[in-house]
Write a structure and sequence with these properties.
The chain is mainly α. The protein contains 10 helices and 2 strands. Helix 4 packs antiparallel against helix 5 and helix 7 runs antiparallel to helix 8.
Length: 312
């Protein structure tokens, strides 16, 4: 509460939700057909879920660094669980999965808490890579060994390593900039707004599909409209970041493009496994991975761009 910029940032998000709720209420009263009522009900379910998600995220941010680290650690566990549920793992992989859930994941976030960037950056790409392979070898089954081992490690990379870069923003030492929590809010806000606005523009103006087989609802019109609008909002929020307006624009474009790529890749996995959603944890949104698929790719891109250009 001592940071006015953070208060304004979170206040703006809450104001957006108030407007969205009001629009949802008006649409619910005007809906006449059964199809229209179903669409509005889905919209309002999504808005209610956003209220819950924003509330939890706001509490985590205001409790300080440890709250954000714990929140994203829980998100990683839930996302990894959803990923493993769809993955071609076997009983012999259970030991490796125990290591992944109860050792590798907590250790990755502990490294953020103690600010050990050197090990944080390589622990999963190097040491977990070795651990997963060796653990599967010890299990003694060689059928589909490469597929099973690669799948578990890829799940750790996406659900834990990539996601952990979001709270890792809190450990960056940026000269003249205080309260890195604003950077975390900036990342999540721009990426999630890009998702929402791509959906809205796609519904309103979408005609030309980008990848019909992988994600039939993604269109060029929705993609361009969402990326441009979200990048414009990110530019307008430069005052909450250590960036100039031009730098905020460049950063926003980078993370919205990375987020779009993440959404496509995670959709390809769902199509491969023959499912619509990764789960049903969040009403109207699907599973945890359905909600953070864009963040999986955007978080490491944003973290390393910020670290490279804005830290000593």
């Amino acid at each position: 509460m001592k940071d006015p910029a953070l208060v304004r940032l979170v206040g703006g998000i809450l104001a957006l939700l108030v407007v969205a709720s009001a629009v949802g209420a008006v649409l619910a009263r005007k809906a006449r057909s059964e199809a229209a009522r179903a669409k509005v009900a889905n919209l309002n379910a999504r808005i209610r879920a956003w209220w819950l998600m924003v509330g939890v995220f706001t509490i985590a941010v205001w409790t300080g660094g440890i709250g954000s680290i714990v929140l994203f650690a829980l998100m990683s566990v839930l996302a990894l669980r959803e990923f493993v549920t769809l993955a071609p793992t076997r009983r012999e992989d259970h030991r490796t999965l125990v290591w992944s859930f109860f050792v590798v994941t907590p250790l990755q976030y502990l490294l953020i808490a103690i600010r050990w960037y050197g090990l944080f950056a390589i622990m999963i790409p190097v040491y977990a890579f070795v651990l997963v392979a060796v653990s599967n070898v010890i299990a003694g089954r060689t059928d589909r060994f490469l597929e099973r081992t690669a799948t578990i490690h890829w799940g750790l990379m996406v659900c834990v390593y990539c996601v952990s870069h979001a709270p890792a923003l809190l450990i960056l030492q940026i000269p003249g900039y205080r309260s890195n929590a604003k950077l975390l809010v900036f990342l999540v806000l721009v990426v999630q707004l890009s998702d929402v606005l791509q959906y809205v523009f796609g519904k309103l103006f979408g005609r030309h599909r980008i990848a019909p087989v992988i994600s039939p609802n993604k269109t060029w019109e929705g993609f361009l409209g969402g990326v441009i609008a979200a990048s414009g909002i990110g530019t307008a929020l430069w005052w909450a970041t250590p960036f100039t307006p031009a730098e905020a624009l460049a950063m926003s474009i980078a993370i919205t493009l990375a987020g779009f790529a993440g959404g496509l890749v995670m959709s390809a996995i769902k199509r491969d496994r023959g499912v619509k959603d990764y789960g049903a944890l969040i009403a109207g949104h699907g599973g945890m991975l359905d909600r953070i698929d864009s963040l999986c790719f955007a978080a490491p891109v944003f973290f390393h761009l910020t670290r490279y250009f804005f830290t000593p």
